[in-house]
Design a protein that fits this description.
A: mainly beta; 15-stranded antiparallel sheet; 7 helices; 20 strands
Chain lengths: 473, 314
Amino acid sequence: MANPTENPPNREPKYELDIDEGELEEAEDEDDTASNPRTESLFRRMRSAPVPVRVHDVIVKGNEKTKDHIIEAEVEAVIREANTLQELLEASRVANSNLRALDIFDSVNITLDSGPPELPGTTNVAKSSSVEASLKYKNIFGYGDIWDGSMVYGLDSSAEVGLGMYLPRFKALPTPFSSRLYLSTQDWLKFSSYEERSLGLSLGLLSSKYHELVYTVAWRSLIDPSRLASESIRRQLGHSLLSALKYTFKYDQRDSYLRPTSGYAFSSTSQVGGLAPDSRSLRFFKQEIDLRCAVPLGFYAAALNFGVSGGVTFPWGSGYKNRASSVPERFFLGGNSSPVCSLSGPSALWGFSTRGLGPNEARRRGDVERDFVGGDAAVTAFADLSFDLPVRWLRERGVHGHVFACAGNTAKLTENEFRNFSGPKFLETFRTSVGAGIVLPVSLFRMEINYCHIVKKQEHDRAKSGFFLTFSA
Amino acid sequence: MEGDQDTSDFTLVTRKPCFGLPTACPNCLPAYIYLKLAQLPFQLAFNSTFPDSEELPYFESGTYVAYNNEDGGVIEKLEKDGIVNLDSQLQSLPDYLSLKALIVSWLEEALTYEIWVGTEGVCASKIYYSDLPWVIGKVLFYKQTYLTKNRLGLTKENAEQREKLIYKRASEAYEALSTRLGEQKFLFEDRPLSLDAFFLSHMLFTIQVLPETSVLRRKLLEHSNLVRYAERLKSEFLEESSSSPSPPLHSFPSSFSGKGSKPKSKPKAEKSEEEKKFKKRARFFLAAQFLAVVIYVSVMGGGSSDEVEYEDDD
């Protein structure tokens, strides 16, 4: 491990960064072996008290493609703030992480460190139950830019083709900037008798640990090739312009995403549509909130997870009380995902099929199925007790058991239905289910094999007691 | 239908009203007039965000729906399903079939040409795309114009010949229909038929929507008995719920007749106010974008200009 030379108070060290074929190294002192007496003395000093040091210069050399200011922006700020050797070591570690996170270098090494933490590069978080193929081109223009083309096919009959661009530094923006041009189709014919097609551009304006701000403009079309849609879906068919800003605040302090045993998480997503000079664009407001809590119980690695999610959507603009909300913005409950993992508003409910509960209407004569048209307000809640299984082989692989209970409901508020809304009636029509199962954490997602028993459902709900397989990512 | 539905449950969904017509879409108007001729009470609902839908107009009653792209059209489907049938026992008569062919082929082709090519789509924009956001409306308009020209077989080489042929056929059709009608009340026998619905729709659209400079409109107005026929049926069947009598058809000003046109009603004045407001907002948005670009260029270009000054001082 290399150390910077021990500095008398009046001398200042030079700090060099070498970029060679994508490698980042610090300048090494020639006498840097651990057995060097001066090195041992330095270590003793570092252990006893902070060792003052001041960074004089940061020199970047060897980079042929990547612009200097891209590298300096990730490194200089943290390095220059270090006032002691201990802080310098810490700053080197942070700089290392920052440069690796750009994902444009083959390898990043800082020889001063005692084994730099290996951070993963940019990861693609795949949607649950989908297959994705993507191509990435990195650093084409030397700005740390990452371009990717992708095709995603979801098992929920959705498909998307997209072209994305990621910039770690974009002018004065404090966080990375990303954009995505996409063409997507979503087939809801089986559940709601419509297909949704979108051609849009999504801009990630702000992306940090807790905050995310995304602007999306899209041409959206709802069609019904089956010609079986119910009345309210028929009225929604056609073209619309979506111009919306979405802000997400996410604070997840749980110890694990796939099997949380302690901590809590809170998420709030606010979306405003109609941000365009054209008053004919889709005007709506949507708010979702998620709260999760995990409490360890101290035996068999058991933990109690509970959570609540809620959301509301409403159109705005002239005549908003009489106008129906847009179907894709509404809340649909049910599906094959677990509410323990997801922080994406009220949606998952064990035992109920995809879009299997809530307001529904009869389809065109000749089809006995009904269309689930979604609700403008929705609430879900769950409690889940997870525990290790007594078989060691299963324990070692993270396979554990759980028992759970969940409840949820959704209601229509628009077209003056909010006048007929009543809390007691909403509570009275809550759907509930209980069950137990086994959870298999598989790499990046969580698979559950559950037996669910439907305790309470309403007429026409698509739910039945039995065994279910759920996936969550 | 089995006759077990409440008759107040009938709804015809069409494209929106415009130019003084209950629905300005030439594909939807025949269905509206047909139901009026049949004196079937129904409600009207509108869909103004789906200009390229082949299903409009559609008729619904409870869970029963008759789409326009099934069984030859919504009128044919209603007749087949027994909801209403003005043409009973007439469908196989040669005279009837030849008149119907004349109206739904030559006249329909002429009207399509006039809407999308002859008048350069000015009224089409207002009928189909005025309720859609500007970008979407423009793209769909150009797409539909291209498809229509393909359907009519128009190319740069044959445009003039095709136009002459289309207008010639329209003239011959008007002549034949005028001769057939004489001074009768209806086109065939002494009762309203689907022929009357189709032809009245064609006439009302041509006279009220197309501009005064339209060649097709001029050719139609040469036949005064046809104009009287349209006025008669319009006042008897289409405006029976209206308290004030409608002015004569040929004196209706068209919104796109050129310099002499005046806005004829308050809704039009409100529409132009809305358009002005939208244009003002769009101009403000574009100005803000332009200003942002100018500021950015000034700020980013400020460093290099300073360097130049420094060198000059040296």
